[in-house]
Amino acid sequence: MSISDRLSSRFSNRHEQRLRPHPGPVPPRSERSLASGGKSGALRAAIFGINDGLLSNLSLIMGVAGASVQNRFILVAGVAGLLAGAFSMGAGEFVSMRVQREVFERLLHIEAHELSGQPEEERQELRAIYEEKGFPPKLAREVTDVVMSDPQVALETHAREELGLDPDELGSPVGAALSSFVTFAVGAAVPLVPFVFGSGVAAIVAAITASGVSIFAVGAAMSMLTGKPAWLSGGRMLVVGAVAASITFGVGRLLHVSTA
User: Fold this and answer.
1) How far apart are CA 220 and CA 232, in angstroms?
2) Structural domain spans, the chain
3) With b meaning 16 or more CB within 10 Å and e meaning fewer, what string describes 237-257?
4) How far apart are CA 34 and CA 227, in angstroms?
5) Each residue of 46-77: pLDDT tens digit?
6) pTM here?
7) What's the rounded Cα separation, in Å, for the pair 42 and 97?
């Protein structure tokens, strides 16, 4: 069986298993899931959401607590920070992902129009791409002929090779918004909970401790995606959180607002 015949057979079975032009072995299911989550935007939004929730609300609460106000004012500030931040993050992610998806869809539409109106030019472009990747001219021509024989496969391949897009992974605005909203709220609740059940120095210490452990844990968990050592990712985030909370607490102490 020739190379062209083998490629034609693979493409004809795409409805049973979608072809992905990744070099090397197929990654494990867990790695494919992480990659898919990253492309959709939900995983990225979740990471930023919980980080922002922890850091921003901890800083806000420490700033208010440093001003020596009563416990109920700390609670009001914390709840307001949680809600404002969660809605802001969710809305921002939805708008940004919506615009991004519309841009990608427009690029795919333009590419489909070019494939329909200028098939020979698109054929030459794809063949040139394969040759630049090291394909021998004959093999590049055979692969291009097989790809261009099916309009859907041609569009998907041109989208990946020319535009760097996966038509199946354009991102979900709703998924990113919900993920960002929920994770921000969860993160923002960590430094707030101690003030629900306590007050004064004990609540401040509990909030700092809980937030520090959570910040380090989130940073360490991120190492599964980045490949960095868990202690390095966790420690780096812990230092950032400690600096931010210390500055806002110090500003609050300087203002020292005493409310009856």
Assistant:
1) 8
2) 41-110+173-255
3) bbeebeebbeebbeebeeeee
4) 13
5) 777 788 888 888 888 888 887 776 888 889 98
6) 0.66
7) 10
